[in-house]
Structure formats: structure tokens, C-alpha cells
Amino acid sequence: MGELAPVRPYGQPEYRWLLPAVLRDEADAPPGPRSTRDWLIDILCFMLSLGWTLLATADLLSPVPTVLPQWSSSPDWLIATDLTIGIAFSVALWWRRRWPVHLGIGVLIFGTMSITITVVALISLFSVAVHRRFAVNGVVTVGAMLMNAAFCVIRPEHGTPIVESLAWSLAIVSIVQLWGMIVRARRELVVSLRDRVERAEAEQQLRVAQARALERTRIAREMHDVLAHRISLLSLHAGALEIRPDAPPTEVANAAGVIRASAHQALQDLREVIGVLREPAAEALPERPQPTLSELPALADESRAAGVKVCLLLGVDRPEDTPSGIGRTAYRIVQEGLTNARKHAPGTVVRVSVSGAAGEGLTVDIRNPAPVGRPPSVIPGTGTGLIGLTERATLAGGTLTHGHDSQGDFVLAAWLPWPD
Predict the structure, then answer these.
(1) Same structural domain for residues 51 and 76?
(2) How many domains does one find in the chain?
(3) Membrane-spanning regions, if any (predicted)?
(4) Residue 10 domain flag
(5) Does residue 118 sit in the same domain as residue 252?
(6) How much is the average pLDDT of 299-312?
(7) What is the pLDDT of residue 229?
(8) Which of 19, 31, 42, 140 meets the CB 3.0–4.6 Å disulfide criterion with 23?
């Protein structure tokens, strides 16, 4: 007699010494609470088994049996015993999901002499095939064949050869087992597909979070040099006032005005840095100062040199007067839009429109038709550029949308606030 197995996590003790080693299947997950469907199926199985038990017993006791005439000569004590076995195992069906192998072993033992246990035996074999692995299922199947052979010897059918009875038993058991294995395989496939979907969603969320974090870090790096420039101006003018305390009042007032304006702009840039920098930057060196709206024509020329047909419409009177943060964001949006057009719609004309003014906001519209007769480029990419642009526009207080319009053109549109 072996040792008592430790209690399972869900609180069910497993007495391993009750089963041979090959029948222990501790890897299978325990059943959870019964669903409405499980209750309906269990009630149906119980009613079928109990109904068959009562029907078979009544037919065996009948003077003229109609359902089981081949066993009409059974003694009364055997019929009473058969009735008790059938009722007991019908009740035991309520625990067939938790202990399918235990129920199967009981069926193998008492099925060698019981007729009323037939329905329970079929349900038990099906439960083992569904809830246990193939090795356990194979052992129980072999046991079912031996049980049928013993039953044919102990309680033979009148007028039917033993070989024929065994052939029918083998066919029925095989059908039940194959049906159970198909159900188990389907359930495992559904669980596998569900796990894949959950992993794919989790990975996508992780990629989105990483893209947002990288974009915020990039913005903070871009602001690094600008903020340093503002502070250096403060230091320069403050040093000039310190060196020349007797300067004319006009020069002092001008220097003080420059210091005030630079300090105000530095504070604004610092607020933007604090707003986007959520975690320490990587150890890589900061990127160099960033372009703004005034360098959009140079960006368009660079794209044209790379083979992109660009039509740029810059509807801003003085691009150099655009606030640096808004200008950088608009430049990056146009840059990403041109890159996407070069990758996914080669040979098409990309129309870029940038317009706006102080107090109205800055509008960026990039659109290109779908490519005709030319395959997309194989330029590699991470697939998160638009996610980063959306994060950048949101942090700037604006909006960004992308997708196909009613005419089939791909449109990347953004609006950025431009204070007075």
C-alpha cells in the first residue's frame, strides 16, 4: 500500500494507492463549477441511466420479456443485485467529471455481471476519453474489452454466439472512445486558440506601450538641446549684467527682457519634458537639435531625391515663428507620412498640406492614393510609427487620425494647438 498523495491545490485529496501507476493522470486540470450546460447534461445522463435500470429490471421480472428476452431466465437474487448496482452507479454519474477513472474502474468490476450498468459504462468510457490522456484512455478501453468478454461468459445471451456478442461490444466501445477523443481534441484546440489570441493581444499591448514610451523618450531627448540653449542664453545675459553693472538703463532693460522671455520659454519647455518623460532615458546619447516647419521644404526635396513624388503646400506665413514644440511635432508627422508612403504606396503622388496660424491651430494633412500595379516596398519597419505619432500628438494637446477615406486614399491628418 503506497503513501497518501498530497492534497491538490483545489482541495481534493488524491489517494494514489487506489490506482495503478499508469492510471494516475495528475496533469489534467480539475473540473470547475458546473455550468448550466453541465447541469443539463448531467441530469440527462442520470435520467437515461436510471430509466434504463428500471426498464431492464421490470423487463427481467416480466413473465413475457420484450426488451431483454435473452436473459429472461435470470434468478431473482441476481435481478435484485443488478437493480442495486444500476441505481448506485446512476447516482455516481454526478461525479463522473471529477473521478472518471475511479468510476470507470468500478464499472469494469461490476460490469462483468450487471446488465443495468450498460448506460453508465458507455457514459463512463466517454468521460474517460474526454477528461484523461490517451494512455489512461487506452488502459480503460482494454479493461472494457476484458469486462465484456467476462460478461459474455458469466451471463451469455441465449441464441447468440459469444463471438458475435464480443464483436458488437468492440464496435460500440470503439465508437464511444473515438467520439470522446474527438471531443477532447476539439476542446484542446479551442483552448490553444484562445491562449494564442490572448498572447497576441498581450504582445500587441506591450508593443503599443513600448512605442509610446520610446516616443516620449525621443521627445524628451529632442527638447534637451532646446532647453540647454534657453538656459545658456539666461546665463549669458545674466553674466553680461554682472560684468557691466553700470550699463545704460536701456541695455539693462533689454537684457532683463531677454532673460525674462528666455526663462519663460525654458519653463514651458521644462513642463513639456516633465510631461512626457515618465521613466529615465536610456544611456544612448541625445539626438541632435530637431528641425521645425521651416525645414519642411528640405524634407520634401530629400524625399523627391529618394524617388517619392511629393506635392508640398505650406500655408503658414512665417514657419520660423511657429513654436518649436509644435513645429517639431508637425515635422515628425510629415516625415513619418512620407516614409509610410514610400514603403506602402511607391510611385504614387503624396500631397502634403500644412496650414494654420496662432490662435487657430496647425493642421497637417497627408494623403496618397493606393498603388496600382506595383507591389509595396519591402522596407523593414516596426509597425508602431503611427502609434508613436498618435502619442506625440496627444501629448502636444492635439489629435491624429489615419485611415482610408471614401475615395480609397490613405489619409494621415493631425491638428495641433497653436496658442496666441
Answers:
(1) yes
(2) 3
(3) 39-57, 77-95, 107-128, 134-154, 166-185
(4) no
(5) no
(6) 81
(7) 55
(8) 19
pLDDT (mean) for 387-400: 83
> 232 and 302 share a domain?
no
| pLDDT of the residue at 353 | 92
Q: Are residues 120 and 214 in the same domain?
A: no
CA pair distance 129, 111, nearest whole angstrom: 18
Q: Residues 289-316: what's their mean pLDDT?
A: 81
Tell me: do 24 and 94 sit in the same domain. yes
* Burial (CB count within 10 angstroms: exposed 0-12, middle 13-18, buried 19+), residue 348: buried
Q: Do 269 and 384 reside in the same domain of the chain?
A: no
C-alpha cell at 304: 523627391
Using CA atoms in the order 28, 33, 38, 40, what is the torsion angle rounded to 10 degrees?
A: 160
**Structure confidence at residue 15 as a pLDDT band (50, 70, 90):** very low
The overall average pLDDT reported for the chain is 75
Whether residue 203 lies inside any domain: the answer is: no
Secondary structure (DSSP) of 152-193: HHHSPPTTS-HHHHHHHHHHHHHHHHHHHHHHHHHHHHHHHH
- Flag whether 195 is in a domain: no
Answer yes or no: is pLDDT of 365 > 90. Answer: yes
Q: Are residues 263 and 129 in the same domain?
A: no
Question: Quick one: 39 and 131 in the same domain?
Answer: yes
Three-state SS string across 187-239, please?
Answer: HHHHHHHHHHHHHHHHHHHHHHHHHHHHHHHHHHHHHHHHHHHHHHHHHHHHH
Please tell me the distance from the alpha carbon of residue 338 to that of residue 335, in angstroms, as a whole number.
Answer: 5
Between 20 and 211, whose confidence is greater? 211
353 forms bridges with which residues in the sheet?
313, 365
| Residues of the chain above pLDDT 90, percent | 5
Residue range of the domain that includes 146: 16-160
Q: Domain with 409 in it: what CATH number?
A: 3.30.565.10
CA separation (Å) from 270 to 165, 173, 314, 388, 417?
89, 77, 29, 21, 18
Q: What is the pLDDT of residue 228?
A: 61
pLDDT of residue 232: 60
Question: What cell was used for 269?
Answer: 519647455
3-state secondary structure 35-70: CHHHHHHHHHHHHHHHHHHHHHHHHHHCCCCCCCHH
In angstroms, the CA 151 to CA 110 distance is: 10
56/46 Cα distance (integer angstroms): 15
| Per-residue pLDDT reduced to its tens digit, 87-132 | 888 888 888 888 888 888 888 888 777 888 888 888 888 888 888 8
199 domain-assigned: no
